[in-house]
UniProtKB/TrEMBL annotation:
The gene is RIM1. It comes from the Eukaryota. It comes from Recurvomyces mirabilis. This is Single-stranded DNA-binding protein. Residues 129-147 have a biased composition (Polar residues). GO terms for molecular function: single-stranded DNA binding. Its main location: mitochondrion.
Length: 158
């Protein structure tokens, strides 16, 4: 014969892994190509903001074999060597970017309300040089063909 015992309450321990207060997290990771050379813009507080756009291909291929491109505007407060590296990257450079994502509402001049995705870069890595698509002389094309997808040295984090 079986007897049923009353379940004993077992004390549960609470363990804290962090001493900071919890915050909401919205993070994006992107791999894409620079639409143009990043540019530095001064802010009203005197800091320098670096702005650039990243094109990310995705989705199914169309009848020409091309994938759709989504464009993301990214801002960065990188300083020192990271700032210099970011500003030296040419158009077409393939990059890996980690950014905080935030949806902001604003009003246009005609009074309508819009929503925009704002990305603030936290880390980046330059993955490869831009692809060379320009027609060059034979000697120039041969020397640049080998460098078309050569990895870049330098990992960035801001």
């Amino acid at each position: 014969m079986y007897t049923l015992r009353a379940a004993r309450a077992v004390p549960t321990a609470t363990r804290t892994f962090s001493t900071t207060t919890p915050r909401a997290l919205a993070k994006m990771q992107l791999i894409g190509r620079l639409a143009d050379t990043p540019e530095a813009v001064p802010t009203s507080t005197g800091r320098e903001l670096i702005k650039y756009s990243l094109g990310v291909q995705g989705g199914p291929r169309d009848e020409n074999g091309n994938r759709a491109v989504s464009w993301f505007k990214v801002a960065s407060f990188a300083e020192g060597a990271q700032r210099d590296l970011l500003l030296s990257l040419p158009k077409g450079t393939q990059m890996y970017v980690e950014a905080e994502a935030k949806m902001d509402k604003y009003q246009t001049q005609d009074g309508s309300e819009r929503t925009a995705l704002n990305l603030l870069q936290r880390n980046f890595e330059a993955l490869s040089r831009p692809q060379n698509r320009a027609n060059e002389s034979t000697t120039g094309a041969e020397s640049n063909t080998n460098a078309a997808e050569e990895p870049l040295s330098g990992i960035g984090a801001s």
